[in-house]
């Protein structure tokens, strides 16, 4: 089946993600008619779009064939040229995180913090998470009406991750701005000012200046329990991490750790409020909270895609992928695959089983998923306990990003519950 080339242009674009209806139609067509689709958009390097869950998993099972270096996200020709110039100027890469690595390095670097993100350790972090949730729900109640995404959701995971890295609260707003610019380089309101093709390189430089200083300070001090200190004092093959890899470790935690969770909070709340009956059902049956959160991850799937590069020829669903081809794993599409999920577009707090790939699959599967689950459960438990009603006011908007995205604007009004606590903790912003 041949799909029209203007369709390919949409598939390669960022804008399609700001229109969920159109985006869903596009992916439904692809999953039905050409699930492993060779995409040739003008001004864009060609790539395979893998849209069904079974194929995303199949690619994830072969990390030696589908490698994470040299490219993580789709880029158009101009972005690619600029990136090559920028990286040549820095003598290599803008950043080199575990997401950009393949084995054996990937395993070594991931292993440095793997146990930190295991459920047993996440339990130890409960008080940090709880304190942040209570403070932000308190602020929401105090305001009555607010724009949930920018006033509440973006702060919550940011504050958690930055607390784990031991970054002072006064610097959270600056790091939030950098992260948004890094992850939504094309969104008209979130992107950096100026010629946006160069935005990412400039943001990476700022990250390096900030985290490079932090690294030096942590290395000069004795090892402490925080994640920032752990990375500063870690060794690989008996040597301290090189500057690029150490700073990149901070960058990946700063970026991967909060934009994704805040997007899930916004879209999760939006669908909980707009899918008839679901909020009341969750209030009546709080034991459904874990499955409701899982459905928020699936339905929001904030990581839209990641790219792999084929090291050798490989046949996938009858298509002949050749060595050197780019393969885009369309995680968002895979989480709506009709073959896996009954009525995938409907948001069901009791969906089960819910084997989505919002956290990816294989050796690169999300390291922070236990932290994301704990953060979301704590926030929504607190929110429901302390409010009597929550309603959407006005029109909701979605971010134009094919990398990490979701909702941009969600105006809500809350009424406190009678038992609402009055505890208040001062937070940034
Ligand atoms: C709703 C929340 C989140 C979602 C949907 C999400 C999604 C993902 C996805 C899809 C990947 C795989 C990327 C690939 O295929 O290459 C990934 C990797 C990763 N995530 Fe998350 N993430 C979330 C929260 C977090 C948090 C809270 C942290 C840590 C603070 C985190 C840290 C990481 C790291 C370090 C990786 C790289 C793993 C590797 O390459 O081995 N994420 N995440």
TrEMBL record:
Keywords: Heme, Iron, Metal-binding, Monooxygenase, Oxidoreductase, Plasmid. Transmembrane segments: none annotated. GO terms for biological process: cholesterol catabolic process. GO terms for molecular function: cholest-4-en-3-one 26-monooxygenase activity; heme binding; iron ion binding; steroid hydroxylase activity. CDD domains: CYP142-like. Pfam families: p450. Belongs to the cytochrome P450 family. This is Cytochrome P450. It comes from Cupriavidus metallidurans (strain ATCC 43123 / DSM 2839 / NBRC 102507 / CH34).
């Amino acid at each position: 089946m041949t799909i029209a080339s203007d369709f390919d242009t949409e598939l390669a674009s960022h804008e399609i993600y700001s229109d969920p209806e159109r985006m869903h139609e596009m992916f439904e067509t692809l999953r039905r008619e050409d699930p492993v689709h060779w995409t040739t958009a003008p001004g864009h390097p060609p790539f395979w779009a893998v849209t069904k869950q079974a194929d995303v998993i199949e690619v994830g099972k072969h990390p030696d064939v589908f490698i994470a270096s040299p490219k993580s996200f789709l880029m158009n020709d101009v972005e690619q040229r600029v990136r090559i110039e920028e990286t040549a100027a820095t003598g290599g890469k803008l950043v080199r995180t575990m997401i950009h690595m393949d084995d054996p390095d990937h395993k070594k670097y991931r292993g440095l913090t793997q146990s930190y993100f295991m459920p047993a350790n996440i339990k130890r972090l409960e008080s940090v998470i709880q304190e942040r949730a209570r403070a932000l729900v308190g602020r929401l109640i105090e305001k009555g009406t607010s724009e949930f995404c920018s006033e509440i959701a973006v702060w919550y995971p940011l504050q958690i991750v930055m607390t784990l890295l031991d970054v002072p609260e006064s610097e959270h707003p600056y790091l939030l701005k950098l992260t948004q610019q890094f992850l939504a380089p094309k969104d008209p309101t979130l992107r950096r000012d100026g010629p946006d093709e160069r935005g990412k390189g400039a943001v990476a430089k700022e990250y390096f200046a900030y985290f490079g200083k932090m690294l030096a300070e942590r290395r000069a001090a004795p090892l402490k329990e925080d994640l920032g200190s752990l990375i500063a004092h870690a060794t690989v093959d008996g040597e301290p991490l090189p500057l690029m890899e150490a700073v990149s470790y901070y960058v990946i935690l700063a970026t991967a750790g909060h934009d994704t969770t805040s997007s899930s909070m916004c879209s999760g709340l939006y669908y909980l409020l707009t899918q008839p009956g679901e909020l009341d059902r969750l209030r009546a049956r709080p034991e459904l909270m874990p499955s409701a959160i899982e459905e928020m991850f699936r339905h929001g799937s904030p990581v839209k895609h990641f790219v792999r590069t084929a090291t050798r020829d490989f046949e996938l669903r009858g298509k002949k992928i050749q060595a050197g081809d780019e393969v885009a794993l369309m995680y968002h599409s895979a989480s709506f695959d009709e073959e896996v999920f009954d009525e995938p577009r409907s948001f069901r707090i009791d969906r089960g089983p819910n084997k989505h790939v919002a956290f990816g699959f294989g050796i690169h599967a999300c390291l922070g998923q236990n932290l994301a689950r704990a953060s979301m459960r704590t926030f929504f438990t607190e929110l429901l306990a302390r409010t009597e009603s929550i309603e959407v006011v006005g029109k909701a908007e979605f971010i134009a990003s094919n990398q990490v995205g979701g909702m941009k604007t969600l105006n809500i009004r809350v009424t406190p519950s009678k038992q609402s606590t009055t505890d208040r903790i001062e937070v940034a912003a």
